[in-house]
Design goal:
Helix content: 55-70%
Radius of gyration: 18 Å
Order of helices and strands: EEHHHH
Strand order of the largest sheet: 1-2
Distance between the termini: 11 Å
Number of strands: 2
Number of domains: 1
Largest sheet: 2 strands, antiparallel
Structural class: mainly alpha
């Protein structure tokens, strides 16, 4: 047991962010995240398809994900996670780290998929890009729930 910051009542120590216990509103949180994700996915598909006119698949993936990142962060901060916890700059930095990790995983997944599928048609390539974005989405959701927007003062390991 440890004492809270004010030296008051004892509480159990928090688990590391990657082992955090989901909050009680996790179904609502996931639904909001999914709706925002659907909007971002539609935008991603359009941006990726446009980018493919001028860019190779991996660069188009990076550009499309980066352009949807700001909306994703702002909407999830406001609607999904209700602007909890730390200051915007801290959450932004954490989201940037989560985004980069997801982007790396997405790029690696897309590169692997494109190396397995010889010269896919544009529709198939776009589906592969969306699927690789799904990998990034799972990573970002886990990190946003447990670290980026976690209300650090309220979480207690039970």
């Amino acid at each position: 047991m440890i004492r809270d910051q004010a030296g008051g009542r004892p509480r159990r120590p928090r688990a590391p962010f990657w082992l955090a216990i989901p909050s009680p509103g996790s179904a609502r949180t996931f639904l909001s995240f999914a709706l925002i994700g659907a909007v971002c996915t539609v935008a991603f598909v359009g941006l990726y398809a446009l980018g493919r006119v001028y860019l190779d698949p991996l660069v188009a993936n990076v550009v499309a994900l980066t352009l949807t990142m700001a909306f994703n962060f702002g909407a999830n901060r406001r609607y999904t996670f209700k602007d909890t916890g730390d200051a915007l700059a801290i959450q932004g930095a954490r989201y940037g780290a989560a985004y980069l990790l997801g982007l790396g995983a997405s790029t690696l997944t897309l590169h692997t998929a494109l190396s397995l599928v010889h010269e896919p048609r544009q529709f198939v390539e776009t589906l592969l890009a969306v699927g690789s974005g799904g990998v990034a989405t799972v990573i970002r959701f886990a990190l946003m729930s447990a670290w980026v927007f976690a209300n650090r003062g309220d979480r207690v390991v039970r």
